[in-house]
């Protein structure tokens, strides 16, 4: 795949006014994922309203800080850092042991990841990421989001009964509108069509169903999260083991995300980006563990958004990190982001993920498709997507060590494509010329 032409490339610095607009686009799209990551643990731990708000504030704060750090000094790619799904699953499983056990497990997982960066030397992984592997990762990112997208686009939220066919059809119409805008608009407008589409969609849904502005009006302008370290961590072996296994999934996801974004921007810094990015993931895990929240991972939706808005600047995403930090200290700003209707967010994500699948096909086809590629590419994509639709009760029947992998279609698919490409269906080594003398 040839590198796309971007209006702002990887190391370009957009003017502040444009950087703020691009940051706003990223923040609005990613915010609902952060809310979900805060609501589930709050329910399991039976937190009161004040503790649930604190939990969300700390997730926004940690994600904002480490997004900025990663973009400027870590892997230095335009990738959002946010709560890991694998660590969220482990958090929920360990929650009955109490928050101190969760804290100790998160700290231990982060420390183990930091140590592994120096022992394993992640730069050796770069040659393993062939076009087949990268293409599968990009496709899986999009396809494993389908259950989440279907809820967003239909307005189902946490309860399937809340969904509406009308909302879904309007969301699909918004996808088509956004796609047309992305194709037709030129220059500056080609970089903000996602934001423009969300504004149009929000206006349509507000006209259909009058929203409640009570939370926005009653939220305070400024609030400092109380009790940054809520309790003293208590070492529990089962929690440490569970988080250690989960951090293997974090490694797989982060490497996949970094590889995917590097393939559409620049691969020159990839060898140093992987260890630096993973090390900072480990640092984030330690600090998030201390605060009793979910550890972070490099988000895999980033390549689709970059391809869609044609802005690959890491500084624009760093500004998004600043916006998330501001939202952490301003409940009113957080409430403003939460006003965007879920079908509108779903339409924006759906459009970006569609573009990403197109890029994945281009990468796989560009390297030449062999018969073995039908299996190496097809099986992980189908099985990874299938796992994302597994009923939760089926996933819950698995042991914790397997649940982290088999309960996450992206992680399972990445591991499967690596196994097929480099073990089970490995390409034979070229025969050496000449024989023994």
Distance separating the two termini: 43 Å
For the sheet with most strands, the description reads: 2 strands, antiparallel
Number of helices: 19
How large is the radius of gyration? 21 Å
* Tertiary shape: globular
Q: Which strand order spans the largest sheet, edge to edge or round the barrel? A: 1-2
Strand content: under 5%
Counting DSSP E segments of at least 2 residues, the number of strands comes to: 2
Estimate the helix proportion, in percent: 55-70%
- The number of distinct structural domains comes to 1
Mean pLDDT: 80
Helix and strand sequence: HHEHHHHHHHHHEHHHHHHHH
Class derived from helix and strand content: mainly alpha
Low-confidence stretches: none
């Amino acid at each position: 795949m040839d590198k796309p032409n971007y209006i702002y490339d990887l190391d370009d610095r957009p003017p502040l006014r444009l950087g703020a607009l691009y940051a706003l686009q990223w923040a609005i799209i990613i915010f609902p994922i952060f809310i979900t990551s805060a609501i589930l643990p709050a329910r399991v731990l039976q937190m009161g309203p004040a503790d649930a708000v604190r939990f969300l504030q700390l997730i926004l704060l940690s994600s904002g800080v480490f997004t900025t750090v990663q973009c400027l000094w870590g892997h230095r790619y335009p990738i959002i850092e946010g709560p890991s799904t694998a660590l969220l699953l482990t958090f929920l499983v360990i929650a009955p042991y109490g928050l101190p056990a969760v804290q100790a497990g998160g700290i231990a997982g982060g420390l183990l990841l930091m140590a592994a960066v120096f022992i394993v030397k992640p730069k050796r992984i770069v040659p393993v990421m062939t076009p087949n592997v990268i293409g599968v990762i990009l496709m899986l990112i999009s396809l494993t989001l389908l259950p989440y997208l279907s809820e967003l686009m239909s307005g189902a939220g946490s309860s399937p009964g809340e969904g509406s066919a009308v909302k879904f059809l309007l969301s699909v119409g918004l996808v088509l509108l956004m796609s047309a805008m992305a194709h037709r608009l030129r220059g500056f407008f080609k970089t903000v069509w996602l934001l423009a589409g969300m504004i149009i969609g929000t206006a349509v849904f507000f006209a259909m169903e009058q929203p409640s502005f009570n939370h926005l009006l009653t939220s305070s302008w400024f609030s400092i999260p109380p009790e940054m370290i809520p309790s003293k961590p208590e070492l529990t072996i089962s929690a440490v083991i569970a988080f250690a296994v989960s951090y293997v999934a974090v490694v797989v996801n982060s490497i996949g995300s970094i590889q995917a974004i590097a393939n559409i921007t620049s691969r020159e810094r990839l060898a140093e980006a992987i260890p630096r990015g993973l090390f900072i993931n480990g640092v984030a895990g330690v600090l998030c563990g201390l605060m009793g929240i979910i550890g972070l991972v490099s988000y895999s939706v980033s390549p689709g958004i970059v391809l869609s808005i044609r802005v690959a600047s890491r500084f624009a995403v760093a500004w998004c990190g600043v916006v998330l930090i501001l939202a952490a200290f301003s409940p009113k700003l957080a409430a403003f982001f939460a006003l965007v209707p879920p079908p509108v967010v779903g339409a924006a994500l759906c459009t970006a993920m569609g573009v990403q699948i197109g890029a994945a096909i281009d990468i796989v086809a560009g390297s030449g498709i062999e018969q073995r590629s039908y299996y190496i590419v097809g099986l992980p994509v189908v099985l990874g997507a299938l796992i994302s639709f597994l009923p939760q009760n089926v996933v819950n029947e698995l042991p914790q060590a397997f649940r982290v992998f088999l309960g996450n279609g992206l992680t399972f698919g990445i591991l499967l494509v690596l196994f097929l490409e480099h073990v089970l269906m490995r390409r034979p080594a070229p025969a050496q010329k000449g024989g023994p003398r």
